[in-house]
Design brief:
nucleotide-binding, ATP hydrolysis activity, alpha/beta, binds adenosine-5'-triphosphate, 5-stranded parallel β-sheet, single chain, Rossmann fold, ABC_transporter-like_CS, 5-stranded antiparallel β-sheet, 6 helices, ABC_transporter-like_ATP-bd
């Protein structure tokens, strides 16, 4: 179980808004996170990953304490080992598709499977600037999966994919998550695009 009970002040344009979330996420659950623009969805994922610290609260993953502000515990992102798909992909401009995946995993057969799932086999030696937006987005997803994270955080991961590609990819991802017992949190401003495959939801309200 992942237990989150945090407060984070948002740098809102006017005044100050506080993001308050208290929720439990069972291992293996797939949560859709939605809500208005600027509500704090991305900020929430970054707090879970350890990229931003909350002012107050606790995050635990099973027996491990990731954050406890009273006890001054704030585990580094490296130690939390979550997978993160950034909204803007955050790819490495000088690395090919294959190099992105090798950087994350030494396992060639696993990498071959990922390339197949993302339909990027024939683009393995391409750098990001020679990929389409959809191909770049799929690479960002594959890279996050490559380390086989126990927790995968995805920020608008399917926004650049057409409905058919999205449907096929989601089917493959579900099979992997099932095999590996991955817990997944997906931010989407358009929850319909996720179809019915999520089994939890978290609505983050705006101001
Ligand atoms: N590191 C930070 N610390 C505190 N507040 C932040 C930080 N980064 C962004 N914010 C603020 O948090 C608010 C919410 O931003 P965030 O990107 O989390 O929203 P969002 O719900 O993901 O929006 P969108 O759907 O438009 O991407 C904004 O007002 C932003 O200025």
């Amino acid at each position: 179980m992942i237990t989150v009970d945090i407060e984070k002040k948002l740098k809102a344009y006017k005044g100050q808004q506080v993001l308050k979330i208290a929720r439990q996420f069972p291992v293996g659950s797939i949560t859709k996170i939605y809500g208005p623009s600027g509500a704090g969805k991305t900020t929430f994922l970054k707090v879970i990953a350890g990229l931003i610290g909350p002012e107050k609260g606790k995050i635990t993953f099973g027996d491990a304490v990731w954050v406890d502000t009273d006890a001054r515990i704030n585990l580094s992102p490296k130690k939390r080992k979550v997978g993160f798909v950034f909204q803007n992909y955050a790819l490495f401009p000088n690395m090919t598709v294959l190099e992105h995946l090798r950087y994350a995993s030494p396992n060639d057969s696993w990498i071959a499977r990922l390339l197949r799932i993302g339909k990027l086999e024939t683009f393995a030696d391409h750098k990001p600037e020679y990929l389409s937006g959809g191909q770049q987005q799929r690479l960002a997803i594959l890279r996050a999966l490559a380390t086989k994270p126990k927790l995968l955080l995805m920020d608008e991961p399917f926004s650049a994919l057409d409905p058919e590609m999205r449907r096929i990819l989601i089917k493959e991802l579900r099979a992997i998550w099932n095999e590996q017992g991955t817990t997944v949190m997906i931010v989407s401003h358009n929850p319909q695009e996720l179809g019915g495959f999520t089994n939890q939801e978290l609505y983050i309200e705006g101001i």
